[in-house]
Amino acid sequence: MNKSMRLTFFVVISLILLQACQSKTVNTPLAEKTGQNQTEMNIKENSISSQAFKENVDWISDSEVLTVKEKEGSAALYITDVFTGDSEKIYDIPFSYVQSMVSPGRDKILIHSAPTTYTAMITLIDLTGKELYKEEIPSYELSYEWNEFNTNKLLITSFAEDWSFDVFELDLNEPELKIVDVEQPFLKWNSEVSVLYQDWDKDGLSVSAPLVNKNLLDGKKEIIDSSSIHFERFPGYLLSVHAEEDAESAFSYQFINDTGEILSQYEADLLSRYSDWFIPYYDMIDKKDELITFQANNPGSFDTYSGTFSLKRWNVPEGSGETLFEDLPLEPIQCSPEGLYCLYGKQLEKVINLKNPAIIRLLEEEG
């Protein structure tokens, strides 16, 4: 995969994938209305008006989600209770909205907006809408990663139109951007001071690359997996989709702990693409150490695939899995902290009940 194609692919992926981590909502008026046991309540169907709705972003708590509404080019953030349907506006976005992201602690929100084509505005707020940080960054495209080990830290990668890039570290305790010396643009935090990245060959065509850990303080590097096509960091371990030699379409989803031991793994057939392999949407329920992921029901090429997907659950410590749904369209998914429900859909406008498998539509049908 050449550099331009690889960068374009990962930028698109970075704009549709989001991470879900354990936390509790604080100082949110709607949270006070949900004292009843969640298992005794029902998701309120058709509770979000389709008027001005743009997307749901992620869970703020086990009962609330972050919602974006946009009208006449002006966007705003709301916190919506999925059990009552109540919605409260917390922040007006002054510039053209691009994307938002909930922090791993679910107590802060990153907002990416675009004052101009070549400028990005990064704004961080708390759940009351109070601004914690705001800065313009010259950028044609932007990607960012929150540090789960210290949620006051983020990595921000700014791309120019020719796909050259700069990587910055933002520390809210010292609110200024610092250049990070790294060879690759797409990074994940591996600790408070180290990052993970795939060390792609800049001159050759390859569908996999060594997965490298780099300490940002002393520059020391360590290879974690010699042949990884995709990776993600979770609390306590990381996921590496490992490429086996002579494998056609079967790959190993390996869960590796901090000492390099593989805790568990399973094989999955992936759909091929022109120059790489397609990784279906997934999310991790951290409190249960369970991966919720899609898997194609038939082999083939992603570009021509017309089949459906199964939604599966993999328990990392036990090394066991099960199928939750066998016939679903492939759409983004975000699971609640306790893992009872997952937002699902192109706009995360539906909820999957994982305890009693069912799909509930939050967005009202347009009349």
Write out key terms for the chains shown.
seven-stranded antiparallel sheet; Methylamine Dehydrogenase, Chain H; 367 residues; single chain; four-stranded antiparallel sheet; mainly beta
Would you write up a description of this structure?
By secondary structure, this protein is mainly beta. The chain has a domain at 1-17 and 42-186: Methylamine Dehydrogenase, Chain H (7 Propeller). Helix content is 4%, strand content 50%. The chain contains 1 helix and 29 strands. It has a 7-stranded antiparallel sheet with strand order 13-14-15-16-17-18-19, with no helix packed on it. Strands 1-2-3-4 form a 4-stranded antiparallel sheet, with no helix packed on it. Strand 9 (141-146) and strand 10 (153-159) form a beta hairpin. The radius of gyration is 20 Å and the shape is globular. The relative contact order is 0.13.
